[in-house]
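Appendix B, example 12.
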Amino acid sequence: MPGPSADPIELSAAERAVLEGWARRRKTAQALALRSRIVLACADGGTNSGIATELGITRGTVAKWRSRFTVDRLEGLSDEARPGAPRKVTDAQVETVIARTLEEKPPNGDTHWSSRSMARASGLSQSTVSRMWRAFGLKPHLVETWKLSTDPLFVDKVRDVVGVYLDPPEKAIVLCVDEKSQVQALDRTAPVLPMMPGTPERMTHDYVRHGTTSLFAAFDPTSGSVIAQTYRRHRHQEFLRFLKLIDSSVPKGYDLHLVLDNYATHKTPAVKNWLLRHPRFHLHFTPTSASWMNLVERWFGELTNRKLRRSTHRSVVELEADIRRWINSWNKDPKPFVWAKTADEILETLAAYCQRISDSGH
């Protein structure tokens, strides 16, 4: 039974159902869920001390919400308005700042608003403008690039490439093939300074070029392994040599489905004639301006971030040897890449994006 000073609580069926729902629902704010459990325990005859011990809270907390519910019932469990200075920025001012950010250019000819220029234009403080932008997820200083493919066979190629990823043919190996051309052998004009506590690794912004090479790669998304070779030139002759390397590296008896882009060296008469003589090769071309569909591009990103961007080389031979060592290390513990999106999901996303562009008023 409740203690002498505790107000007894009786719940109607409707109130009990609401409180039990609040206490059970995962999306309910945890504070409201706790208050609901307190009131339910009080209605079941628990004492303030017993409920506090059971729920791991203070006796005063139990007494507070018992009293609030007795007076205001369910509405009493909501947070009361907090004391403080009245709000100075009106909804109209917020709407004006957001609308100007999205629809107008700064009057001084800048390409985008800064928090300071918007503060001057709106008569608000810079910190107020910054809070508004954060609340609405606006970042005028950032810009992203994008490009829509104009390939007339875009839909067909998307379905073809995605189909090979998600449902590869039997007794076949899928390889994502591309070339990373003009890989530069760069040497810094001063030694790289090592990382120290509180200081990142430092290198000079200028460099000396010692030549370039081109890396041809065939990435197996299922196993993560890579067949790769560097060549000093980037012509159809080198592409043919690389196809022959793939042919000799993959056991006979497997068809080879190559995903590659529309680069001219992939479609020369010499390449076509060679493919006719090697029927186990099947080519799947990504749409124009859609190299993101070729998973070897993702692997090139790993190579760039983990090896090339911060390396120094005094010759092309040294660069090629360093790339070969890194690839050998990768192949000892390869990381497969998993394609998750279906063709329909890609096309639906693109359709929604095109709809937003056409309705934007620009």
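The chain has a mean pLDDT of 86. The longest strand covers residues 172-188.
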